[in-house]
Amino acid sequence: MRVAVLKGGRSLERAVSLQSGARVEEAITALGHDVVAIDADEGLVSRLKEEDPDVAFIALHGPGGEDGTVQSLLELLGIPDTGPGISASVLCMDKVQAKHRMRAVGIPTPDWVAFGATAFRELGAADAFEEIEAGFGLPLVVKPAGQGSALGVRFAGDPGAVPAAIVGALSYDDRVLIERYVAGRELAVSILDGEALPIVEAIPEQADLFNYEARYEIGRTRYVCPAVLGDAEADAVTAVALHTWEALGCGGFARVDVMLGGEGVGPQVLEVNSVPGLTDTSLLPIAAEAAGISFESFVERALELALGE
Amino acid sequence: MDPARPEDETGRSPGGRPHRRSHTTSADVARYAGLFAQRTTVMRSSAMRDLMEITSRPEVISLAGGLPDTSTFPPDSFAAQMTRIAQESSAKALQYGPTEGFAETHEVIEEVMRAEDMRPDPGDIVVTTGGQQALDLICKTLLDPGDVVVAEGPTYPGAVPVFCSYEADTRQVEMDDDGMRVDLLEELLAELDREGRRPKFIYSVPTFQNPGGVTLALERRRRLVEIAREREILIVEDNPYGLLRYAGETLPTLYSLDGGDYVLYVGTLSKILSPGIRIGWVCAPPPVRAKLVLGKAATDLCTSTLSQYFVREYFAEGDWLAYVDELRDVYRSRRGAMLRALASYFPRQATWSQPDGGLFVWATLPDYIDTTDLLAKALRENVAFVPGAAAYADGRGSGSMRLNFSAQTEEEIVEGIRRIGAVVGEQVGLYETMTGSFEVVQPEEHDDPSISSAARSGGDGANPGPASGDVLPFHRKPLRD
């Protein structure tokens, strides 16, 4: 079988994507298939036409690769892919739309408000800061609406820090998401073909919980898998993650990020990554392995799902 | 600890290409992590590095690198020199050489140092694999974990990982338009005294500082050397750009003021000939030099013999100063283009240094702009710079950026600055819109004056006045009428 691995691209997560892609290529080769590694650039479509692969493994993270664009192109060319489907991609990449969908079906997600960059100039959105703080309390979590990784995510601990955090987030996207902060444990539920894998808990070594650097670096964040949780807690987290998977129409594989708050708060879904990182230190491979699924087996399964097997 | 190995340990590619065995399960990662030395936990890797990866895309105008323009070196003469080496000294040029470098290379180094009025003792020189190795060897020789190193703030971004990997406690001293604030250095040393600590060395790029673009004033140079002698502290003077002066009077190096007792001098041919040949050096008093040589022997036995033969051939032709002149002309004019573009396209809240030489301008934005975030936005416009945080070991510098003017054409520099100016302007506008209704003090002037605003009155950027004395706070567009 001839498998195209799409990686790199122009996204800011290019470096991570190249690592994910390299690892997937290794696995596909080990499985005995032909690999066509493609760095997604302006030659992508013509390259795909020329190589005519049987299936494409999407290892692209961030806008372009993860938001349904590449999947639309693959669909046009009649190449099946490992992604979750175009509509789920669109929903997962857009944190705001995903949260609306979650809320509509009763999935707990932290309170939020979202603005386009123009809202500040054209609608005086900044005049509502007081209400946001009064409603959500401090600190506030400020994120770009459509960036898959922790890039541009900031905590604003006091009112004066909010505008700078918004300026930072809007460096990555045209819309900003301001969210109520949920104190708790940072959990990730990886899902393969509708089955939840063991829960991973990320325990940052340093106080900064949302540290982009720590996520990709050995030794900066400690991962525990399976996470040490009571049965009831683990069940609740898994249930909410599977509900989210279903509500957003996911397929293939995905990772649901959940904050487990304290008493009365419970699990709160932050976001879903439709092409989660597959690097050495990424959470999905850790979870798969804890379930006894080697990286090769995971890749094999993802390809089978793409081919409808 | 060997759970769950992947089932395929011997995978071969069906196409016959030997393929790297998959070795990166989380168990492997954990096993490697358990083996890493303590110092690796402070080695820096970052979001910024991931972003920097994108800066090498061909469509990006990169003002990020510190690259000299090697396209100015004539290929014909390179070919002739290398051919001569192959014909006349093939066996020797392909052989190992002495750890401290060839005597002929030492002669070249003496000649280069004489051009800046230094008279090193040939016995003090060690040829290194670039100036970077000199820094590494100096740290290897002098530092125990936790030792204090004093550096300028901001400092050479490439020195930060070196200090980190030797687990130094790096303290950075603010600069102004005249370089390191030596008065603040003295305060820091007094504070360290009270803690019963003494820095192992003071690391300085006194001339056309990377990334600050400023030059240490003469009276501060004298005082710095005095401090070193009084307190018996070593200074590491890193001087890659000394010969690349475009304006103002030449100043004596710390090494020449000190005579080589307390100043370890680090030089390089990277900026006056080629960074690809990896030829740098360090001049150190004999006891230090002996340790450096031992350290180098352990690291790489010797610096490339082939490169040293090339250097010997090249300098034997006697035209090297003419080439430096040529580079100076090219860079002077690129610097002028950058300074004019900054004045035209950066918002009034921004300030920047006015370098008399070297390769860099250091620009500081209002403190609500984080330049790492800004880089993400700038990359969408296909332009790149180095975020200021790279120049600090302690997380400061997020409001600043380093801009290189040696590696791109004048047109590219102007276009690059225009694009950065546009994204900065957008962010300033957004912030002002938000804070118009929000009680946050709008900084008029950046209140951390590390490299504060300075523009020479009346200059056109290419030929500003004397090195100091007539500096004025920078306001809007002084370089353009």
Spell out the blueprint of helices and strands.
The complex is a heterodimer of chains A (309) and B (481).
Chain A: E1 2-7, H1 14-30, E2 34-39, H2 44-51, E3 55-58, H3 69-77, H4 86-93, H5 95-104, E4 112-116, H6 118-122, H7 129-136, E5 140-144, E6 154-156, H8 162-169, E7 175-180, E8 185-192, E9 195-196, E10 200-204, H9 212-215, E11 221-224, H10 231-247, E12 253-260, E13 267-273, H11 283-290, H12 295-306
Parallel strand pairs in A: 1-2, 1-3
Antiparallel strand pairs in A: 4-7, 5-6, 5-7, 8-9, 8-10, 8-12, 10-11, 12-13
Chain B: H1 26-35, H2 47-54, E1 61-62, H3 75-93, H4 103-114, E2 125-128, H5 130-142, E3 148-153, H6 159-165, E4 169-176, E5 179-180, H7 182-194, E6 201-204, H8 218-231, E7 234-238, H9 254-258, E8 263-268, E9 280-283, H10 286-300, H11 305-316, H12 320-345, E10 351-352, E11 360-364, H13 371-380, E12 383-384, E13 386-387, E14 400-404, H14 410-435, E15 455-456, E16 471-472
Parallel strand pairs in B: 1-12, 3-4, 3-6, 6-7, 7-8
Antiparallel strand pairs in B: 2-9, 4-5, 8-9, 10-11, 11-14, 13-14, 15-16
User: How many E strands of chain B?
Assistant: 16
Subunit organisation of the chains: heterodimer
CATH superfamily of the largest domain in chain A: ATP-grasp fold, B domain
**Which blocks of ≥5 consecutive residues of chain B have pLDDT under 50?**
1-19, 437-481
What is the total number of structural domains of chain A?
Answer: 3
CATH topology title of the largest domain in chain A: D-amino Acid Aminotransferase, Chain A, domain 1
Beta-strand content estimate of chain B? 5-15%
CATH class categorisation of the largest domain in chain B: Alpha Beta
Percent in helix of chain B? 25-40%
**Rg result of chain B:** 24 Å
- Summed up, the helix count of chain B is 14
Sheet/helix structural class of chain A: alpha+beta
Total of helices of chain A: 12
Q: What's the helix-strand series of chain B? A: HHEHHEHEHEEHEHEHEEHHHEEHEEEHEE
Share of helix of chain A, binned: 25-40%
Report how far apart the termini of chain B are: 71 Å
Number of strands of chain A: 13
Q: Please summarize the sheet with the most strands of chain B.
A: 8 strands, mixed
Radius of gyration of chain A: 19 Å
